[in-house]
Design brief:
Shape of chain B: globular
Helix content of chain B: 55-70%
Radius of gyration of chain A: 18 Å
Structural class of chain B: mainly alpha
Largest sheet of chain B: 2 strands, antiparallel
Shape of chain A: globular
Oligomer: heterodimer
Low-confidence stretches of chain B: none
Low-confidence stretches of chain A: none
């Protein structure tokens, strides 16, 4: 699975290098999400390093500035890839200066993004060395926003995205790590195991293992479920189930979400 | 003399356009019914049209606008809202909070109890169930405003707090305003002014007010060149709600905006959001979903503009 993921990532990078198109951009963005959370997992480091180096080249080529200026929806993945680029030793703050100026001068309309996206954008940009304040948004209780989702009568891919974003915030800043949700991530993982949701199980296990916390019994159950699905797998793990495809984010990054989940799976089981 | 005559003619045209828009809405009240969605995705009920109709009725009633069509639509809305299980919707999705609060306000304005158990609604609010979702800043303003209207304490400061995080609050460059950013501004103005019944200078610094005036005018002029009368209508409405005192030049922009809205009115009174839909509406081919929102906005705009000289 590790080799398969590396091949897929390499193919996407080559495609994007040859012709930067939204499809590959969103796929790479989804992959960057999981790699950003794999800093402590040795098995994922070669992939993380490869994507980071590619991201730095795109940043220096001005691709991210074009993406930022073209569409506000590109903002989250762009800043995420910038953040990965900032981990490459050759990265200099000046590499992201132009992209940062677009943001700070109000030339990128980030204001009409959901609040959580705005928080994570500001935090990633800050990690790249660009001063970008959060204003009142920074004081929001993320535990409340996330844990209360457990009371809803349904779950969808946006729940996973929310958990991914909060986990990224927590891994970037102590300010967020003191108020982490626990009920919802674990409840969603139990639900994914019980319903055999092969795409969600590795992602949720990764989130709970690295950020939210996981009791040993749940960890054992999740690991068993992942091993069983990997034994049967001859290709990437399946995409999220159609019932949870409620927003554009999922439909435009379908392949990326398969790679993302597969990466989480081998990174945890290695 | 000629200028004041022109203004008189414009106000008469505006009044007639208000009557036509309200008549179209009244003739289509059945289409505002709550529908069950069958595609198994998203919320299984479509309540948005009814919620938006209620919001228009609330604004017109609070401004003292009285017409036979308004009474008829209000009676319909009271009946329709009474037949739906709002508790089920609330349990399904926390985004139900805002429409439910508006419904409670609408019923209170008609001296009727809310069509759901208010203790249940209060319980969900107290346990922060409605906080369990990520919203746009202006949707947070929606929530805080609707709660403040039904007497939930300490919501007004939240309106101002979230306003600072909107496109306007962050001083976004006007050239980069998206359509969503424009709606964010128009919603913000509605709430900051309590739909035009509270002067905004109570909440905003003079410098922010001055920028609001300037940017509303500029954005309106920009949208005059676009093909989107839905947003244009909301922007023009904001001139009235925010109490903009225009210069003679700015007044000509407002008048041009109103005329543009008249030009988008189909023969049956519906107001089309784009010129393409206008052509289809004139041919009787446009759908209710395409027309209703712009017609609601226009009904408020024309009704208020006919009563207040800008």
């Amino acid at each position: 699975m590790s080799e398969l993921c590396m091949r897929e990532v390499e193919r996407l990078i080559t495609e994007f290098d040859r012709s930067p198109r939204p499809k590959e951009f969103y796929d790479l963005g989804a992959i960057a999400e999981v790699l950003a959370l794999c800093a402590s997992l040795a098995s994922a480091q070669p992939l993380r390093a490869r994507v980071s180096v590619a991201a730095l080249a795109w940043l220096r080529a001005g691709l991210f500035e074009d993406a930022l200026f073209a569409k506000v929806e590109h903002l989250y993945h762009t800043t995420l890839l910038c953040y990965l680029a900032s981990g490459v030793p050759a990265y200099r703050t000046a590499d992201a200066a132009h992209a940062g100026q677009l943001l700070t001068s109000g030339l990128v309309g980030r204001s009409e993004l959901p609040v959580l996206t705005m928080q994570i954008v500001a935090t990633y940009v800050g990690a790249c060395g660009i001063d970008f304040d959060l204003d009142a948004l920074g004081s929001r209780d993320l535990r409340l926003v996330v844990d209360k989702r457990v009371l809803r009568a349904r779950s969808d891919e946006y729940d996973i995205l929310t958990l991914m974003m909060v986990a990224q915030l927590a891994s970037l800043s102590d300010r967020f790590s003191h108020s982490l949700p626990q009920i919802f991530p674990q409840a969603l993982l139990v639900q994914a195991i019980r319903s055999g949701h092969l795409n969600w199980i590795p992602i949720l296990t990764l989130l709970c293992t690295t950020v939210y916390g996981i009791p040993p019994w749940l960890r054992r159950g999740a690991t068993d479920a992942m091993r069983r699905s990997l034994e049967q797998a001859t290709e990437l793990l399946p995409a999220p189930e159609p019932g949870s495809w409620e927003n554009d984010y999922v439909t435009r990054a379908e392949h990326g979400l398969r790679v993302r989940s597969s990466i989480a799976s081998f990174a945890l089981l290695a | 003399m000629i200028a004041s005559l022109k203004r008189l003619v414009l106000r008469r045209q505006t009044d007639q356009a208000a009557k036509a828009a309200l008549a179209w809405l009244h003739a289509h009240t059945d289409s505002f019914r709550i529908a069950e969605t069958r595609d198994e995705q998203g919320t299984p009920w479509t309540i948005k049209p009814l919620g938006e109709l209620l919001f228009m009725l609330i604004i017109l009633k609070r401004h003292g606008v009285r017409r036979r069509e308004i009474e008829g639509m209000s009676a319909f809305a009271l009946r329709e809202a009474d037949t739906f299980d709002w508790h089920e919707l609330a349990a399904y999705d926390p985004s139900a909070a805002t429409p439910m609060a508006f419904i409670a306000e609408f019923f209170a304005l008609h001296d009727r109890p809310a069509p759901f158990e208010t203790t249940y609604f209060d319980f969900l609010r107290r346990i922060d169930f409605f906080e369990g979702m990520d919203r746009f800043p202006y949707r947070e303003m929606d929530l805080a405003y609707s709660f403040s209207r039904i007497g939930v304490p300490n919501e007004q400061p939240r309106i101002n707090l979230w306003f600072a995080s909107t496109a306007f609050g962050r001083g976004q460059n006007l050239a980069r305003y998206t359509i969503d950013d424009l709606y964010s501004l128009t919603h913000a103005v509605m709430y900051l002014t309590d739909v035009g019944l509270v002067p905004p200078h109570g909440h905003l610094d003079p410098s922010v007010l001055e920028r609001l005036h300037r940017e509303l005018v500029t954005l309106t002029a920009m949208m005059l060149r676009a093909d989107n009368t839905d947003v244009l209508g909301e922007l023009l409405l904001c001139w009235i709600l925010a109490g903009i005192a225009p210069t003679p030049f700015e007044r000509s922009i407002f008048a041009a905006g109103l005329r543009r809205m008249f030009g988008s009115t189909a023969t049956d009174g519906a107001v089309a959001p784009t010129s393409r839909i206008k052509l289809r509406a004139d041919a009787g081919e446009a759908t209710f979903a395409e027309l209703y929102h712009t017609t609601l906005v226009s009904a408020i705009l024309f009704s208020l503009a006919a009563r207040r000289a800008l």
